[in-house]
Amino acid sequence: MKPSLPHILIAEREFLIALDAEYLIKLALDCRITLLRPEQVDQWDAAALADVDLCLFDVPLDASPAARRIERLVEARVPLLFTSLGDLHAGGVEGFEVIPVARKPYDGETLLALVRERLRQTP
To answer: Which H, E and C letters describe 56-105, residue by residue?
Structure first.
């Protein structure tokens, strides 16, 4: 049985940035949060991914190496919110333009609005 609190996965290369996102989200939402590096998502099987209600996924400036990892999350039907530095991905990540991008450093209100919009609704 799935726990009642939503589970947010923060896949971020920089630990302090992940902590910042966790802090902002926890201030506003009652949820479970797991922090990990993007490559650690590869170790999660289908059952573990099914428990994820949103994944904040750090997209590097060159998104092509992360494309297969992103495709796997999409195939597992994990709701995604990309995070990225600067303006390079402000219009979206090539091939995944429908997934919004939260720019770092985070604006708390903007990040929370995007998280609420993308978070899978649990019954």
So the answer is: EEECCCCCHHHHHHHHHHHHCCCCEEEEEECCCCCCCECCECCCCEEEEC
